[in-house]
Amino acid sequence: MAKQLDFTKPHVLRNKAEYQAAAAEIDQLLDEDPEPASEAYERLEFLSVLVQAYEDTHCPLDALPTPQAIVDFILEQRGLSRADLAKWFGGKSHVSEFFRGIRPLSLKQIEALREHLGIPADLLIGRTLELANSSDQ
């Protein structure tokens, strides 16, 4: 069991060790499924706010993998190459444009990646939309 944080004087999470301890305690509290308004429930909410604040500060969105990085990783894990995607992407040029960042994934391509490679669609959709929105600004 992880060491419980002492918040007799509440403070933001200052380092990775405090972050990990808070995350471990959140997991433990979630397993206990505390009743709303109980002390454990209030602690769960408090720690969740602290963890979210730490993640917002130390884990910026642009540090998350791009759809291209996700697909490359899965291809490598399965012993496949980018050329293997052509049959699902509508041709080699579409694959090339996707990996060069020129063409975002279509819903049909996301569905094919989910079906054939097991990549969760929400992972690809979320990052595709985030990147499209950030390039619009």
UniProtKB/TrEMBL annotation:
<dbReference type="Pfam" id="PF01381">
    <property type="entry name" value="HTH_3"/>
</dbReference>
<dbReference type="InterPro" id="IPR001387">
    <property type="entry name" value="Cro/C1-type_HTH"/>
</dbReference>
<dbReference type="GO" id="GO:0001046">
    <property type="term" value="F:core promoter sequence-specific DNA binding"/>
</dbReference>
<protein>
    <recommendedName>
        <fullName>HTH cro/C1-type domain-containing protein</fullName>
    </recommendedName>
</protein>
<feature type="domain" description="HTH cro/C1-type">
    <location>
        <begin position="76"/>
        <end position="124"/>
    </location>
</feature>
<dbReference type="InterPro" id="IPR039060">
    <property type="entry name" value="Antitox_HigA"/>
</dbReference>
<dbReference type="InterPro" id="IPR010982">
    <property type="entry name" value="Lambda_DNA-bd_dom_sf"/>
</dbReference>
<dbReference type="GO" id="GO:0006355">
    <property type="term" value="P:regulation of DNA-templated transcription"/>
</dbReference>
